[in-house]
Specification:
By secondary structure, the chain is α/β, with parallel strands linked by helices. It is about 35% helix and about 20% strand. It has 8 helices and 12 strands. The strands form 3 sheets. An 8-stranded mixed beta sheet has the order 1-2-5-6-7-8-10-12, covered by helices on one side. It binds iron/sulfur cluster. Iron/sulfur cluster binds next to loops.
């Protein structure tokens, strides 16, 4: 295990020298997020142009060695709770476990063992008597939410103080093609999102940035607001929106064309979303 101190800019997935589990000091949550990377092969079914995964390739998660994952998660949480890691590696003021986060180098729900992974997290939480306040977060592009097994995993997560962060960067087919490099109808996105909301508390996570110096257009904003407005009118209530810009450099070929937006720009869009009565958390 490296003894480098962790900071909010040190997101090195190898920093705990484990296969699946890695710690992140999260600027969003103000504490330690215990990440689980199921996509150790850097494979995702999308290719977002801002994606920070190096050597990203199209595909799904490999077969998960559940025994190794369970040993790693149990061991690392135990170290956080009872060992020296917090004091020696985590900056003061952030020395708390905020969440266990299924996130990583690809789409976590593409793992065939997704349901078993949630059951494993439940077991480990229980064995270590992890405080109920520690969340279980799934960071997902939402594209596989139509699968019964994924929905079951989300229902199980809901019992573990679960939270889904469902990616919605643009709300038009052309916008998703441009930003996420994926062909997907907005009807399909809507169905997947409704399924997520029905299974587990769900936040929208939206990355808003400039491309070739131009921020998203007014039409992009209107498409987004129309999509969210229709969802709410039909009685599907997400928890809110996590609106952020580029925190770390893209590892995709488009990287030189991308730039972060000023906070005021994000806030102006957030103000439009807030008119629906939705909570919006802005992270520049
Ligand atoms: S969904 Fe996530 S992991 Fe997949 S390409 Fe987009 S940002 Fe990268």
């Amino acid at each position: 295990m490296s003894d480098k101190p962790l900071s909010t800019i040190n997101h090195d997935r190898d920093s705990a020298a484990l296969r699946y589990v890695y710690p992140v000091v999260s600027r969003r949550s103000g504490g330690v997020s215990v990440g689980i990377n199921l996509n150790t092969n850097n494979a995702c079914n999308w290719r977002c142009i801002y994606c920070q995964v190096p050597d990203l390739k199209r595909g799904t998660a490999p077969t998960i060695d559940l025994a190794v994952l369970e040993i790693e998660l149990h061991g690392f949480l135990n170290e956080l709770l009872h060992g020296d890691f917090m004091r020696s590696r985590v900056p003061e003021g952030l020395q708390r476990i905020n969440d266990i986060a299924l996130s990583g180098n690809g789409e976590p729900t593409s793992a065939g063992e997704f349901v078993q992974v949630i059951a494993l997290i439940a077991r480990v939480r229980n064995e270590l008597a992890l405080p109920a306040a520690v969340k279980t977060v799934l960071i997902t592009n939402g594209s596989l939410l139509y699968r019964n097994s994924v929905q079951q995993g989300l229902r199980d997560m809901a019992k573990l103080n679960g939270e889904v962060w469902f990616k919605l960067d643009r709300a038009s087919e052309a916008g998703m093609q441009l930003v996420n490099d994926i062909h997907m109808s907005m009807g399909k996105v809507r169905d997947n999102l409704i399924a997520a909301i029905a299974c587990c508390p769900t936040w929208l996570q939206t990355c808003w940035f400039a491309l070739d110096g131009a921020p998203p257009s007014r039409q992009d904003e209107d498409d987004y607001l129309e999509f969210v407005g229709a969802l709410l009118r039909d009685g599907h209530q997400p928890q809110g929106v996590l609106l952020y810009s580029l925190a770390r450099p893209s590892m995709q070929a488009e990287a030189p064309r991308l730039s972060a937006l000023p906070t005021e720009h994000l806030q102006a869009f957030a103000d439009r979303i807030c008119k629906f009565g939705l909570a919006v958390k802005v992270t520049p």
